[in-house]
Amino acid sequence: MKHSHLRFPCLIAALYFGISVSGQDVRQDTTLKEQKIEEVVVIGYGSAKKRDLTGTIAKVSGEEINDKPASNPVNSLQGKVAGLSIVNSGQPGSQADVRIRGTVTIGQTQPVYIVDGVFANNIDFLNPADIESMEILKDPSSLAIFGNKGANGAIIVTTKRGKSGRTTVNLSSSLGVKSLDNRPDITNAEQFKILYNEDLANQGLPAYDKFNIFNADTNWIDQIAKKGGIISQHNVTISNGNDKNRVSFSFGYHEEEGSIKFEDYSRMTLKFNDDLKISDHLRAGFGLTGSYAKLPQLRGFGGALNATPVVAPINMIEGEFYGLYNSLPQEIGAAQIANPLAQVEGRRYTQLNRNLQFNPNMYVEFDFFNNFTFRSNFFVNYASGFGRGYQPIFNIYIPETNTQALADGQALTSVSQFENRIIEFQQNQLLTYKNKFGSHDLTLMAGFETISLDNNSMSGSAKGGLSNPLGQIPNNPRFWYLNSDFVDSTTKTLNTGQSKRRNVSYFGRALYSFKNKYLLNASLRRDGSSALAPGNRFDTFWAVGGAWEVTKESFMENVTFLNYLKVKGSYGDLGNQNSFYNYFGYPVYVEGGTGVFNGNLYPAFIKEFEEATDLKWEHLKSYEFGFESSMLNRRLSLDAAYYNKQTQDLLNRVDGNPDYFLNAGSIEAKGFEFTAGWKDRIAENFTYYINGNLTTTKTEVLKTLNDGYIGYFGSSIYQQGSPIGSFYGYQVEGIYQSYADILGHPASTIGDVAPGDFKYRDINGDGKISADDRTIIGDPTPDFTYGFSLGGDYKGWFLSADFYGVYGNEVYRSWGNGSSFAPFNYREERMDRWTGPGTSNWEPRSYTGSGYNALPSDYMIEDGSFFRIRNVQAGYNFNKDLISGLKLQALKLYVNVQNLKTWDHVNSFTPEFGGSAVEYGYNGSGYPNPRIASVGINATF
Q: Which pTM was predicted?
């Protein structure tokens, strides 16, 4: 266990308790606050001045994302926006776990992404260098326009477009090296021998007699880890424009090595935009975004943590079997754990997965009758994930018998192929009316939208044959196809799947301002979906918000320290369309038994689930209120908001015969968000800033399927009155020190106990330890999260640092608990185990003869609080006079260190763990969030 001290970082968080720019614009520059209040932000189906909005929208400039070493732009948002939780995995090409203002569903938790107007499930196909800005929408006033897609929040991405002026060419490049910050603490060979033989002795068995054969001391993490993994990013952007035509073209290449050997990822991106002004009243444009990615063959460190360290990776004994990978001891895990190095090296580059995405779009826009604008948008999303795999065969060495055997007992090679293809067509027609008359300012928008989504999938596999005259399938990608001549055609299997979904929506929004100080925003949307049963496919969602700019009142004229104060609030009814199936009203039939006819056995088919004729989308009733302010000559800003989200009519799949779907249950999330910021100029050449944010979140399951219903998901529980995703198990009072201690404690009905075993608490006081004594032992949702940043600029030299932390959450350690009867390696903490009276009151004896000590309990709970130096960057922006001779408009050189240091209490590579809505925060050993030290250059011609 790590004994880090987080008290000081948490004190820092309290002092900075939300230091970020008003309106949560987290761009790190020194623009005057008044300009930021008046800035235009992107909202659903349009844009507006931030000053005219009643909701909470955080804007992150593309400059904060462009030069960070991340393949997915959302990874760089961690700690920058209040209310936005991002759990990064660190694995190349992986998706982050993103949640906005807590978890209020038992289904999908991810927000909806909107990229230049088109809906997307993620943004891993985007080049971070192409992003102009990202807006994070959190409150009902901002989200209701998205209807049944808005309940989990929204992230709007605006990419760069051509601008009027001279032709510009921008080149950017960075090169970084990875290293591990933290790693789990596990036993070495000598420690393993002590614990394992002690375990055998406690079971009444003799000591293991083959440690003379297995006498190595192997750190399996070191064996499979990639040392000094490289990450590089290279981008070029060419743009040109005038009053009539603006064009932009960009190309990007990202290459990255993972933290495990042979885990390589690369991606090419392409982007093109052309905006044409046909006349003063008519405009049109075309755009194209494309990406092609070679995905890594993903591995994990689980085997390296569990494998015993007494085995050498490779047999180095001269003879027939020299150079073969060693098997683990037959009595110590060989049946459950393969040699980790053999798995990584022996099967390297045998899974070739690719992603291809192609997104053309176009629009036509024209003005009429002075105050009206009509815009027609068309989007296509073509995405294909495809790949081929190969299972090689090779021999491993069995030290006990001095023989060889097939790895994993696999005698035949095999191949597999798959493809998942999505074709989505989205179009919307928008009519906008803008007018200012007297003290009134009004913007009305009405829209119509359709989305058509087709999904097709195919997967298949086949094996080689011993009787094939050509031999086994070669370890050569040329032959990794189902129609290969090396394949035994009788072993072929093939599966296909198809689905369609259609959505149609009508929506509208009103933005009204009276004297620029009394604001009213309202949105209404009616969504229809083919996923629901006929007759129940449409639903309505809405929101209304109001704000008052107090500083424009006459009674505030003498309050000179306060430059800007706006109080605001909103309430809305949002929807969540994330669902299990595309056809709730039309179940498919699956095998559900057998029948005998004329002496022959036939499969019987039953409905997969009962028709859900009255099912509807989840509804989120949400409200917030708060204020935005700036003061002290606009150098200090302070915002605060209280939010409350309550999802009703949760979408459940209920076990039955057959299963059925039901709207039932409710979950609430509530809390506060604070943001503040300070920026100032000291002398003419030195500017500095301090930004930050703090968010509190509390969740509670208000209702479930019915009174008394409890759902179990691993070691998490779903029950009324508990936080969502709560960990559930026994409370450990200590360790039984003697048989007298056992007799003086309530008797166990869940397993035999002996001195050295856990002493569980009798929660219900019935005089015995039973399953009824399980209780809530942890909450994976932090009490608060925080982030802050510091930076300064002096005569072109700049330095910035970002910090991030969470506090008050628990993590469930699901590895190294002795939960398997297989003899896995041990956590180093097990060296403090009980060996006799008074030796330990927390670590139980070394004993795997029963599962009693491995029952879910707060012994597995770890403090999930951590503090991280998220990013540090230093560099120099060259003065134009210095680079004019090189025909450069701008030149920036910098060094950057990401994930410089993390302080935590978790025995793992990382303290961050995502998951599903009801089962998250599990420490399964994790995957490193590596430290990345990089250098970069950005040049504009």
A: 0.92
